Amino acid sequence: MEWLIIALFTASFILFLLSFIIKDKAQERTETVEELSLKVMGEMYQLKKRVKLLEEELLSVSPSPLSTKELEMEAYDFYQQNLSMEDIAQRMGLHTNEVEQLLKKYTKGNSQ
Question: Which sequence ranges are marked TM in the entry (predicted)?
């Protein structure tokens, strides 16, 4: 009977010590999760801030779209400088087919 009481006290003491060790690991995990959470929140804030700045920049700088006539005139100016259709398309940010359509009435007799 005495051995049983001693064994139970020893077991309870060991479990008592283990409870502190296990608590510390759980607390470490909790702290790590909190740190990661704060880090992610900070990064999200920075990203939202950058997106907002980019949106403001895009809204303030957005040029008005050019009309077809203005595009034709710009393409014709490049054409008069003896640039190829590919060069004109590259400078205007258009496809070669689109440039050919714009210059169709100016290049009826000429072929490049």
Answer: 6-22
Taking the C-alpha atoms of residue 30 and residue 37, their distance in angstroms, rounded to an integer, is 10
Q: Where are the domains of the chain?
A: 1-62, 68-102
Q: How far apart are CA 67 and CA 31, in angstroms?
A: 60
| Length of the chain in terms of residues written | 112
Q: Please name the residues in contact with 78: beta carbons below 8 A apart, sequence gap of 6 or more.
A: 87, 88, 91, 92
pTM for the full predicted model: 0.40
Contact 88, 78 (CB under 8 A): yes
The alpha-carbon radius of gyration of the chain (Å, integer) is: 37
How far is C-alpha 40 from the chain's CA centre?
Answer: 15
Largest CA distance in the chain: 117
